Amino acid sequence: MVSRINARPPDGEAPPRGFGQYRDRNITTVANPTCGLQGAPMIQDMHRFPHRYRLSGLKVASQVPLPMRPLAGEAETFEAEVTIAVDDVPERLEQLSHQGPNWSLDARHFLLDLPEIGRFMASDGHRLTICPAPGMALDDILVFATGTMMSAILYQRGALLLHASAVVRDGRGFIFCGPSGAGKSTLSGALSQAGCTFLSDDLCSIRDADDGSPTIEADGRTLRLFQDSIDRLGLAGAVGARVRAQVEKYHVAAASGEESVTSAPLGAIYMLADANAAYPPGIVELAPLAAAQALLRQCYRRRVALAYAGGALAARTARLLSHVKVYHLRRPRDLAQLDDTVDALIAHWSRP
Fold first, then answer.
1. What CATH number did the domain enclosing 194 receive?
2. I want to staple 196 with a disulfide (CB 3.0 to 4.6 A). Which of 32, 59, 191, 296 is the partner?
3. How far apart are CA 335 and CA 183, in angstroms?
4. Exposed, middle or buried by CB within 10 Å (0-12, 13-18, 19+), for 129?
């Protein structure tokens, strides 16, 4: 069964079109002597987190508005599983278990240090703390807070994450994996216009249902598209703020109706690949070993995933493959042929 929530915006507000629309709601601007965000948004009552979301299956309460659709109608019953705050973050962790070029982790914390942007810390799978560098725009900070740092929170909670987008059709979820720039978001946007429901963009969380079958969780974000994809899909009227100030990529509201699907049973996984003279367009099932290798390559922030899961990651992947098939989806990158790819996928899902 596909679970749903009422995702209508609060009375009197238009549907979200990116981060900027919600930037100043319920926020008081104060000086923050510890962090460098100019006029850092801070809540007068530090025990209150007025911005509430559902991200990858978790109820999230934030001191700052995030670039995604806020929850409505749950004010009285909302119990946050994760909080996001602007506060001080230590420069280093003392007892490291793993370390990367700009990140480190210990038994309880994941620390990301980006000198020109800020420091971030995820703690115990429950708390995300942001400490921006001086003068850094909040938009640029939140790209990392809702991406790498949210993935750290989820890994601390034992999640399996893929670098992927996902849609739902006829009660089943379908995942599209690929590196940055592979066309995951554009394909999901085109499928949402063809009657599918948009589920996630960039970060796809998979959990086991009670019967052990895999379920995809919505990541709560909008589509994020470059201008050529926006023009091709005719979504100029749904465009919001830029994802980052210096990048020509925008938050775009997907055409998914008044209700948003929050989870769906996983139907299949597709690895995006370019078609060419040697490899014509088509959908080809991967053999089990090739499928396992492809999934491991597409784990979100793979080194972080391995740091948290270790050898259990391969076992988790094998368990996933016992329930679903993985395919190569070879298609032209020419946006003029995007409809052909959409038609091929819908036909593939209609097979007995």
1. 3.40.50
2. 191
3. 10
4. buried
Give pTM, 2 decimals: 0.85
Can you read off the two tokens belonging to residue 152? 């750290």
Structure tokens at 350: 């209609």
214-224 pLDDT tens trace: 999 988 888 89
Q: Domain check: are 195 and 297 in the same one?
A: yes
Same domain, 334 and 242: yes
**Residues in a beta bridge with 262:** none
* Pair (257, 324) in one structural domain: yes
User: What does the radius of gyration of the chain's CA atoms come to, in whole angstroms?
Assistant: 20
Domain of 54?
44-157
User: Would you tell me how many other CB atoms lie within 10 Å of the CB of residue 208?
Assistant: 15
C-alpha to C-alpha distance for 160 and 204, rounded to whole angstroms: 8
Q: Which of 138, 157, 176 is the last residue of a domain?
A: 157
Task: Report CA dihedral (326, 163, 54, 226) to the nearest 10 degrees.
Answer: -120
Lowest mean pLDDT among 9-23, 174-188, 223-237, 319-333: 9-23
